[in-house]
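User: Sequence recovery, please. Input:
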């Protein structure tokens, strides 16, 4: 993987980047596993993180009741 002088060559750059990302993800999973002890808590934590990620990226659908409330408010406001 490394050349004789200890540096990665240009062909190994993507491999080293992928290994770095994999190591970062693995470390994150290890930290999360230590912090959250049981399977139910892990599921709850992952769901909460997923909801936050969807909100942050703007891909979560808008709440149905909120849409209805906005429409009703607009109707009352417009007459």
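Assistant: Recovered sequence (79 residues):
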């Amino acid at each position: 993987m490394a050349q004789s002088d200890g540096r990665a060559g240009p062909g190994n750059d993507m491999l080293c980047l992928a290994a770095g990302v994999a190591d970062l993800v693995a470390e994150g999973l290890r930290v999360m596993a230590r912090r959250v002890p049981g399977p139910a808590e892990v599921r709850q934590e992952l769901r909460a993180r997923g909801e936050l990620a969807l909100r942050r990226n703007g891909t979560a659908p808008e709440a149905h009741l909120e849409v209805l409330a906005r429409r009703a408010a607009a109707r009352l406001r417009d007459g």
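The first helix runs from residue 13 to 35.
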